[in-house]
UniProtKB/TrEMBL annotation, chains A, B, C:
Gene from which this protein is expressed: LOC106609920
Keywords, alphabetical: Cell membrane, Disulfide bond, Glycoprotein, Ion channel, Ion transport, Ligand-gated ion channel, Membrane, Receptor, Transmembrane, Transmembrane helix, Transport
Known partners and oligomeric status: Homotrimer. Forms heterotrimer with P2RX2. Heterotrimeric P2RX2/3 has a ligand dose-response profile that is distinct from either homotrimeric P2RX2 or P2RX3.
Top-level division of the source organism's lineage: Eukaryota
Subcellular location: Cell membrane; Membrane
Reaction equations catalysed: Ca(2+)(in) = Ca(2+)(out)
Residue spans crossing the bilayer: 325-350
A Pfam family the protein falls into: P2X_receptor
Name of the protein in its database record: P2X purinoceptor
Length: 403, 403, 403
């Protein structure tokens, strides 16, 4: 029993060969230096491996658009050109309307040239695949003095969506006010994009730009579009989707004041620029009214809009013992990897490689063991330890064993 | 000083015992082969560990529904059955309406049987927990010729939501057009689900299916529901939520043309199928009108709808030096793990295990050290190195030291 | 060739020194024990490193608010105070309205004191920066008997948003019903927040609380606000954003019944509490009407609301061979790290450190090698192995090599 315990409380360490050679010594220390530099410089300083990180940011976005536009001789305000109205992180500013007033359920001619007809027979082919503005009836009816088109059943009159209209150019000067609160649940750290340094006076006057007002939460639509490398007129004409990205990269080991938002802007439907199929962004909705006799009628609106998506992402780090320990262990372990390289050089390319090999490797073969066992039931270890032979292990194969 | 420098520029390598035994040699190489195969086959080829990955995809989704339905002898178009109208990634197609027209603020009887009453006393129990269609007044009033119910204050008349109506079956043939632009910010790689090979002619005619039109961005509602293993009639009757998932798994080391979307479909509110409590999906909204005298009245709509959630996820990889290096180091290190297994076999189960042990382990005990120190102040290392004894370390305990 | 094969099928193992010393033996085993305890206790049991994890939860949320409020002598129902009406994961309950009825396009005086004027000249400064309720015309007009203000063009009359109104206090007793289905795609595991143990009777009567009804999917607004540590009256007065978080932390190695949702509540726009600039949450929208002659008029509503964001996150784990293997290898490897510490103690701080050093390190210098090479072209390894010298490697430098 006692032997067991004494045998247990022993310490095993590898036997090492110390090579006093300038060549390999310098290579060895340089490789170790590189590995240590990598770990300190990249892993610890740059990647901050001593921190635990929280990327599961909790975020709340409120938006408010301000500005007045003049469109079709009417003054448009927020309640008309912003939809949905709730001021959430996704909202559309409508830049152009195609309005079809006083639609009622009934029968009327199609409005597009591709439904042109001279006889009912021209219209039967549409019966099975409705496409235009309603259910085709298969009849050819009078559209205007010069044109007959196929008849439809649905909301009448049919929308004429090929009329050219100009977008509301005042949109360029509208302002978007963004209120963003974030929380890193792991650290219970809460902050908002209204920095404590911002005064009510500053808010009233400021507009975001990348130089002097990097923390102003009010954005001119024209600026946002310009920062996203887009042209306002084209965008207002065809519609599109702009991403306003708010990034919170925070080192919570530093002062709370250094955890600030950074804004960037990009066109999200970038594909629309490249592809001619269905460019831009538009949608249809209707306002419903009732006549005195109870009949429904409506105004159909096809709206071309710029959609803004406010996207928030965050990444906060704070010192923590566990990742620090794990990465220090990884660093120590990795320093040993240099040995692989040095062994290859030492045992293959250095002058006297065979001598080094002889020094590093002791050989024992099973024939020796068998001889030793057969010659003497009671083995005599001292003897065969003396019978040493230089190993021919090539060093190239040895790579694995030293990792 | 010079000694210090020469001592510093040395190289230490472990002293090794090379065992020339077929048994252990083959085991050793086979274990190494397995580890290398695992790393090359799984880690590098399958898991592409030589790449850095970006999963923080930026995505923009636009949707447009097309089709006409006939409901209650009215033709329904997109502006009526799609809500919200903005064409975002989440939208509902309404399949069934329960309409309550001409509601005004006032007093009226409840519409449900559970509010049946014969006397005011039957109604007092509802006073503290309003449930039906308005605030209970506690009175019992005439509902129709055969029934008295409790009176409420609110929008009157009360909705009768137990009337059976048929869903709009044309929805099955409606088409959903999805425009999806994505960007992997890490690689500044932008692509859309309109592949460059898609022509305007193809778009006009195509419908997505899993065989021939895997990249057509137009989806028939009936197909989507079928691919999600649902029954259209049941879904249209009760409502539900369908997920349209777009996956972008891209290997950016390959050609850009091979980075394509893959579509999959699933029912998101799967629970609704299993559980009888509150199955399906419906919501209420109202259209507001004004009489000439300024009184508000409204049409209340209870809409049963199929909600579609377009969910985009992406994962792109590209060759990068840092993960390649890290994983190669991990691979080299792991090859050494095989030694643990081989040592256990060599030192315990092989014929001549004791001899191998003697060869591998040199023993030194503190009594020896103390003797050596006391006998001669100036230690003579050559002597006690000669005094070797076979170690009895059992090999089983040794596991740890070689890892 | 045969030599090549025999040379290949060999096994290399490190030569070790077994130190039979109580001091270092106990330190060694204690360090190993600590490392093993850490791995078993923390990595395997606590962090469940033997599982693969899925955090890419697929979730579908449906909400339904119930309750009736009395506001301005009108009964408000869901169709009026909840927006958007679709019952998605984000919805607002409006608590307060500022209503401006019968607006038409035209000219009228501003309503705010800051547009006070006595002469047209006072109004010209507003021409270039519209702020109030419409486009300024630059004229000073009669607002009421005591006040003249600058004229605007737009929807008239202008909104008076500084009138004090009381919020709808009944909101506190409204209930929010949340239906949440989740799916872990990696394990194809589907579940909902309607646990199988929940009966229709229970659902009808229950209200969520943190003690007895932790799985009831019906939440009283007042309770939610209380759990988020907010005051209902303040919140209803100014508006705000409340997050309802549903967490699904599931160990799928256990029974399916143990995978249950946990609800938590937080105020998302926490910044609003701290900062006086633009506190709360409100938005404007309008209801449009038509006169008999076709003129549009509208009711503008400024709504103060409590927005609820239902946020779902999940994390499920299940036993898998690959992470189990990887972590076991990591555990074995890490046990070896203890050696670094023990070596430092053994070679520097222990009595007889120099002897241990002599035992552990064999030295070979390039001068020896060169001598050996020059004296005899055919090297005689046995000879110079005899010429050993005690190494002076300091042990502190040795750290790297044993990792």
């Amino acid at each position: 029993m006692w032997t067991c315990i004494t045998d247990f409380f022993t310490y095993e360490t590898t036997k090492s060969v110390v090579v006093k050679s300038w060549t390999i010594g310098i290579i060895n220390r340089v490789v170790q230096l590189l590995i240590i530099t990598y770990f300190i410089g990249w892993v610890f300083v740059h990647e901050k491996a001593y921190q635990i990180r929280d990327t599961a940011i909790e975020s709340s976005v409120m938006t408010k658009v301000k500005g007045f536009g003049l469109y079709n001789n009417r003054v448009m305000d927020v309640a008309e050109y912003v939809t949905p109205s709730q001021g959430a992180s996704v909202f559309c500013i409508i830049t152009k309307f195609i309005t079809t007033e006083n639609q009622v359920q009934g029968y009327c001619p199609e409005s597009e040239m591709k439904f042109k007809c001279t006889h009912d027979n021209n219209c039967t082919r549409f019966l099975n695949k409705p496409g235009g503005n309603g259910l085709p009836t298969g009849r050819c009816v009078h559209f205007n003095d010069t044109l007959n088109t196929c008849e439809i059943r649905g909301w009448c009159p049919a929308e004429i969506d090929y009329i050219k209209t100009h977008p509301m150019m005042e949109v360029e000067n509208f302002t978007i006010f963004i209120k963003n609160s974030i929380r890193f649940p792991l650290f219970n750290f809460t902050k908002g994009n209204f920095l404590p340094t911002i005064t009510p006076q500053y808010i009233k006057a400021c507009n975001f730009d990348h130089e002097n007002n990097t923390y102003c939460p009010i954005f001119r639509v024209g600026d946002v579009i310009r920062y996203a490398h887009q042209n306002f007129t084209t965008l207002a004409q065809k519609g599109g989707v702009i991403g306003i990205k708010i990034g919170w990269m925070c080192d919570l080991d530093k002062s709370e004041d250094e955890c600030n938002p950074s804004y960037s802007f990009t066109r999200l439907d970038a594909m629309s620029e490249k592809n001619s199929v269905s460019p831009g962004y538009n949608f249809r909705y209707a306002k419903y009214y009732k006549m005195d006799n109870g009949t429904d009628y409506r105004t159909l609106l096809k709206a071309y809009a710029i959609r803004f998506d406010v996207l928030v992402n965050g990444n906060a780090g704070k010192f923590n013992m566990i990742p620090t320990l794990i990465n220090m262990v990884a660093a120590f372990t990795s320093v040993g990897v240099g040995t692989v390289l040095c062994d290859i050089i030492l045992l293959n390319f250095l002058k006297g490689a065979e001598q080094y090999k002889a020094k590093k490797f002791e050989e024992v073969s099973d024939t020796q063991i068998e001889n030793s066992l057969s010659s003497n039931g009671l083995y005599r270890s001292r003897e065969f330890i003396g019978v040493e032979k230089q190993s021919n292990d090539s060093g190239a194969f040895s790579i694995g064993q030293y990792g």
